[in-house]
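request received
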Amino acid sequence: MFEKTLAELAQGLASGEFSSVELTRSYLDRIKAEDGALNSFITVTETQALAQAEAADQRRAAGDAHAFTGLPIAHKDIFCTQGVRTSCGSRMLDNFISPYNATVIDNFNTAGAVSLGKTNMDEFAMGSSNESSFYGPARNPWNNDCVPGGSSGGSAAAVAGRLAPAATGTDTGGSIRQPAALCGITGLKPTYGRVSRYGMIAYASSLDQGGPMARTAEDNAMMLNVMAGFDPKDSTSIDKAVPDYTLTLNNSLKGLKIGLPKEFFSGEIDPQITAQVQSAIREFEALGATVKEISLPNTHLAIPAYYIIAPAEASSNLSRFDGVRYGHRCEDPANLEDMYKRSRGEGFGEEVKRRIMVGTYALSEGFYDAYYKKALQIRRLIQQDYVNALAEVDIIMGPTTPHPAFKLGEKSSDPIAMYMEDIFTISLNLAGMPGMSIPCGFTNGLPVGLQLIGNYFAEERLLNAAHQFQQATDWHKQTPAS
Amino acid sequence: MEWEAVIGLEIHAQLATKSKIFSGASTAFGAEPNTQACAVDLALPGTLPVFNAEALRMAVMFGVAIDAEIGHISVFDRKNYFYPDLPKGYQTSQLFHPIVGIGHIDIELEDGTTKRIGVTRAHLEEDAGKSLHEEFPSMTGIDLNRAGTPLLEIVSEPDMRSAEEAVAYVKKIHAIVTNLGICDGNMAEGSFRCDCNVSVRPKGEEKLGNRTESKNINSFRFIEKAIKGEIVRQIDLIEDGHTITQETRLYDANKDETRSMRSKEEANDYRYFPCPDLLPIVIDDEYVEQIRSCLPELPDARKARFLEQFKLSDYDAMVLSAYRELGGYFETVANTAGDAKLAANWVMGELSKHLNQNDTDITVSPVTAEMLGGLLLRIKDNTITGKIAKQVFEAMWAGDGNADEVIEAKGLKQVTDTGAIESLVDDVIAANQTQVDQYVNAEPEKRGKMIGFFMGKVMQASQGKANPGQVQGLLKQKLDALAN
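response:
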């Protein structure tokens, strides 16, 4: 059962092979048995999950089932979930029971999905290894000494470890694609504005985007069908019709133009990763695609620009965590200033504080033009790079990460080394376009991710290409030994 | 040395939208604390703002009314600072691209001339909540009902040179926003409040002196007093050899003085940047023109019309045109009674007196414009005297019905029956022989004044209902007959 994809589980539910309650119970039992090692969940909502499963079974019996009805999934603990602790991986919100649902959660509830619980993550989505979580790091199912990536590391570990068939994630600089690559699963960061951000705790508002994480492209398509859509509660969400992403999965790739940016195949990259990615591209050629080299000349500016813009927005977004209305408040504050300083000092971890400091500095009087304004200019250049490239080709491909999963603790004392892991993913958030990571091989027993990048709202094309690749290969079917 | 004050004002006008600027919560005043604060107003994690288009419409109305440039692209910025009643840790405001650009208004000075005051800009922003320090010993209560209420901040050029000019400017802005119906203008509830930037310099000097800002003053009188006091304080300091510290001051109406709140050194670095949760607002010419074509009559235009149409005095026209509701009320009274001067006297006299004494808004006056017009008609057709009319007004105010009903019920109809009046006159002459003798023996030119005594007695005897003209004529006729 745990090897079945969402699509297969949906068939099982539809044919009556098993009920949602049985399915949910199995996953809950497996989480109990296996998550001690993985630490992929912060909160498991057993009672609620079984109630949702029962309601789903009734709904199916009444003939009112949606494609997603009764399917169990997990949610990154960044999505506000009514009546459930929503911690964002932080001590600051360890006591926060959300009184409302994020739009993404509402959408899944409406479809009749079952929520198994809330997955581990880097604190406030700031990190690439899951090590900044207040709840301790999730671990990579392929090697428990390694990180699962971040910030959606708990979601990736849970899916790769077969503790959930699928999970939601969010991606601000690679936080869906990088852990998907490191854990050997399939993840999609949609176009900015495609999925509502309402109720998704903000890290960097202009970059954050929620998306699906599952084992296959087909499962990603099923999830995106539920997640995508205009939300009047999010002014940056885009009012554009949502296609059924499962309908175009089997389109032919004949004549598909693939661009390979030379900047993604040079510099500090594990040669095994380059080799696996190149072999995957040959597979696409075999499926009828053509390949050409392209250039994204401002790629090297992406990390510096990102580490101005994201912290600047974060420094403002995280101001609401002040100990006044909810969240952590220090013991016996002497006065207001003491309350602010200690509540925030105690509530936030090191990486969050680092980014708040950086962002505060970048926005401060006299530095705004040199940092924030400059970074916005670079952002436009990077965006233009992608617009130009995607006028020539249909999909850009390259490695998702320069290295496979690294050891816990290996990079946590060197923030810059950690930031460099996002070099291939981060520029896409600055541009706002959609991107995917799919499994395409292994290096030393650790998964390698292939990144697919498309134009604005080209999610159908990305999912189609990924699905065709997965029909021809079995990298996505590999299972870590548990 | 002769000193000159330089004054610039920032006015915060609360826009009269039903819901908040970025959430659907109600903006009504006076609800139980925190009952009008939704998830967005509480700044719960994950919540996002959605801009209320009604606030945009109102801001553009103001811009059009002061003949200002309207920005085609308008952007919300975040002003970051920590305060417990500021739930997000930033105020959503506009720094770089305000909705309303450079405009102007004209104020009337005491010498009858007008002066043009520049408006630098007007921008939209959200109000903060309230911190309640009194009610909770050693704690602070936070009420977020007001958080997210839309404000239009109207910033003037430093064009004013006296407290009187400043008050005239504030009154004019107040009249504009209330006439447009975009602000209720209620200063006591804080719907319209003013920050006063004041500096002084030797007359003739170009360079500006260091300025102070006195914040959140909420009455015309306090604005005048605060500015006057601040001018004197600054001149005294400079003349004693001190320099003025650039600082924010708080006006204490109880003590009638300003005191320091924070100096420039303690000022926050607000780290303004464009709010990434809100899209830039794009305003096209068509939208602006559509608003321009629907703009209600403004005070200046209405005053000119009152002067022309009703031949009012300049003062009456100014007072009656300042507020839309007052102007409309007056027009109805004048048209019903067919006598603008009489209508103006009653609206500015008896009606205003009652409204003030009872702290009642003209829109909910128990005496409607139609009722007052009806009352004035009865004065004009001699049914009642002016004096009786005040009695009738009191009764109407108390809810006893319209003028005709009151006159009928209380039997207040004026007595014009010559026979009845003559008998009252005879009685008074007979009962007051001493005064009659004085009258008869007085110089003829002094008799005119003495007749008042008899008038009073007769009117008293008639309970005010006798026609005063007839009484006067009869008294004069009969007393003069006795004297000759």
